[in-house]
Write a structure and sequence with these properties.
Largest sheet: 7 strands, mixed
Shape: globular
Strand content: 25-35%
Helix content: 25-40%
Order of helices and strands: EHHEHEEHEEEEEHEEHHEE
Strand order of the largest sheet: 6-7-2-4-3-12-13
Structural class: alpha+beta
Oligomer: single chain
Number of strands: 13
Number of helices: 7
C-alpha cells in the first residue's frame, strides 16, 4: 500500500540530512513489470496474448514531451517471441554534479516530509541510515492506451490521499472520501512573471504527462525558495491542459498525437526478435532516429 499524504510544514529546509545522504543504486529493470504480471493469478497469462508495448512510464514521458522539450533520450525497443514490444531505458553513465544532486534530493526530501507509512509497513527505528535512505517506493503496473496502442506501464506512486473539491459558492472544501493516487513535485517559488511563464510552459507539461499516463488525478507541488519550502499547491491533472493553453503555450493533444505516431513507427519497424533497436533523440533536434543496436 502506498504511504498516506500529510500536509508538510512550510519553512522546512529540503536539504536536511543532505550531507549524510547516499544515492541508492538504480537497479530497476523492466523485469519488474513482466515478473509482476506473470506472478499474479489474474494476469499471469496476459503477456501471451498481449500485442502492445510494455515499458516504464519514464520512456513514454520522454516521447510525449518531444514536441516541446529538447531533452536527449535513448530507448531500446525489442520485439518478444510472444509478440509484444518492450521499451527499455538506456542508462547513461554520466554522474550528477552537486547542483543536480541537490535538486534531486530536495524532490525526494519533499516526498519524505509529505508522507507517512501505514502502521504495518513502518520502518524499524534501529535500521541503519537516514530516513531518506530508508524511504520505500510503491510501484504499480497500469494498463493504458495512446491512440490505437495498448500499453502496460510500470510506475512509482508517491502516495494516496483524499480528493478535495471546492464547495460551489463557498471557500470551504470537502473530502470525497475515497483515497486517490497523488504525485508529489517541487518547483522554484514564483516571484516574477518570467518564473510563472517558465513553470506553466515547462514544469506543468512534465507534471501533466507523468500523471496523465497512469491516471494519477492529483499533483501536490511544493514551491521552494532556495531550499526552504514556502507553500504547497494542488493541481488536478485533467485541468492542467486548459491552464497551459491559456498561459503555457502547449497543447496536450499535440503530445498524445505525436506519441501515437512514434509508437506506430516503432511497431512497424521493430520486427526481428533477435535484434535490439535503439530509438534516439538528440542534437540537432531535427528527428528521432532508429537503428539496430548490438545486444
Amino acid at each position: 500500500m502506498p504511504p498516506v499524504y500529510k500536509d508538510p510544514k512550510t519553512g522546512t529546509s529540503l536539504l536536511d540530512e543532505y550531507q549524510d545522504y547516499k544515492e541508492p543504486e538504480d537497479d530497476s529493470t523492466l523485469d519488474f513489470v513482466t515478473n509482476t504480471l506473470r506472478q499474479n493469478s489474474t494476469t499471469k497469462s496476459l503477456l501471451s496474448t498481449f500485442r502492445g508495448f510494455v515499458s516504464f512510464r519514464n520512456n513514454l514521458n520522454k516521447i510525449l514531451a518531444t514536441p516541446y522539450l529538447r531533452n536527449e533520450y535513448h530507448i531500446h525497443a525489442t520485439k518478444t517471441e510472444e509478440g509484444w514490444i518492450r521499451l527499455d531505458v538506456v542508462k547513461t553513465p554520466d554522474p550528477l554534479d552537486d547542483r543536480s544532486r541537490r535538486f534531486m534530493y530536495m524532490g525526494r526530501r519533499f516526498e519524505e516530509i509529505c508522507t507517512k507509512h501505514p502502521p504495518d509497513t513502518q520502518q524499524n527505528d534501529d535500521e541503519a541510515g537516514s530516513s531518506m535512505e530508508k524511504h520505500r517506493e510503491h510501484c504499480v503496473v497500469v494498463r493504458a492506451k495512446i491512440g490505437d496502442h495498448e500499453m502496460l506501464l510500470g510506475a512509482e506512486i508517491d502516495c494516496i490521499g483524499p480528493r478535495r473539491r471546492e464547495e460551489e459558492g463557498e471557500e470551504a472544501t470537502r473530502d470525497d472520501g475515497e483515497n486517490v493516487w497523488i504525485e508529489l513535485k517541487t518547483s522554484v517559488y514564483q516571484e516574477s512573471e518570467r518564473q510563472r511563464i517558465s513553470f506553466q510552459k515547462y514544469k506543468l507539461l512534465k507534471f501533466w504527462i507523468q500523471s496523465y499516463l497512469v491516471g494519477v488525478p492529483l499533483i501536490k507541488c511544493g514551491f521552494r525558495k532556495d531550499h526552504i519550502l514556502k507553500e504547497v499547491e494542488t493541481f488536478e491533472t485533467l485541468k492542467i491542459p486548459r491552464m497551459a493553453r491559456d498561459k503555457g503555450g502547449w497543447n496536450g493533444n499535440v503530445c498524445l498525437n505525436f506519441a501515437s505516431e512514434i509508437l506506430k513507427f516503432i511497431r512497424k519497424n521493430v520486427k526481428d526478435p533477435s535484434k535490439v533497436y535503439r530509438i534516439s533523440y538528440s542534437a540537432p533536434w531535427d528527428s528521432i532516429r532508429m537503428y539496430v543496436s548490438p545486444r
